[in-house]
Amino acid sequence: MIESEPLVVADRITRSYRSGGILVESLLPATCTVHPGDQIVLLGPSGSGKSTLMHVLGGLDLPTTGRVSWPALGQREELRPSRITDVFQGPSLLLPLSVIENVRLPLLLGGTRSIEATIRANEALARFEVDDLADKLPEEISGGQGQRVAIARALAVRPRLLLADEPTGQLDSATALLVMDRLLETVRELGAAVVVSTHDPR
Ligand code: ADP
Ligand code: MG
After folding, report:
1. How do beta strands 161-165 and 84-87 pair?
2. Residue 53: predicted pLDDT
3. Nearest alpha carbon, ligand 1 atom 11
4. Given CB 3.0 to 4.6 Å as the disulfide criterion, which of 17, 57, 136, 166 pairs with 140?
5. What whole-number distance in Å separates Cα of residue 166 and Cα of residue 163?
């Protein structure tokens, strides 16, 4: 694998669903490339297909037609838990696990040793100012706090590509700015690429 290879190449991908006998075309042919270090915003109104595109770019969903590949990252089975990470639009913390266990889990699955996983999880939580919530359960924290934990979880792994789907949707505008600043700063430090979706032009 060569360093300058693209992370993602999508070639005329579409995604349609059959819903109650009706064909819903969520994604018209989309062609795009994500390179290392890219910072990309997907801007569009609700229902325009942002989440659908993110899921296909990240290999969590398959295109109906067209092709997607990850030249610098490997096969679809190799992308997680470490090479691509996700901040999902909806709640995504695992309910039986505490905040810190949620952040530690992908690190442990990726082979990081337990002590190192704890250190990195704490660092990531502190960066997004939710380290004081480490021992709480997801149901004991707010939606916005949960979003910050999910961002910390996605970045603690040090991915090559972060896919963040409306990551500040539940935050007030001042906190959203702060969180986006920290997110982009972390992505830059890692030399990673990021795709962020939003319906908010700001
Ligand atoms: P966005 O993230 O921009 O709000 P989505 O990608 O979630 O948009 O959805 C795009 C379109 O695809 C919408 O019309 C939505 O209703 C439809 N859609 C998304 N997921 C499904 C599904 N699983 N089954 C049927 N239709 C879906
Ligand atoms: Mg969406």
Report:
1. parallel
2. 97
3. 26
4. 136
5. 10
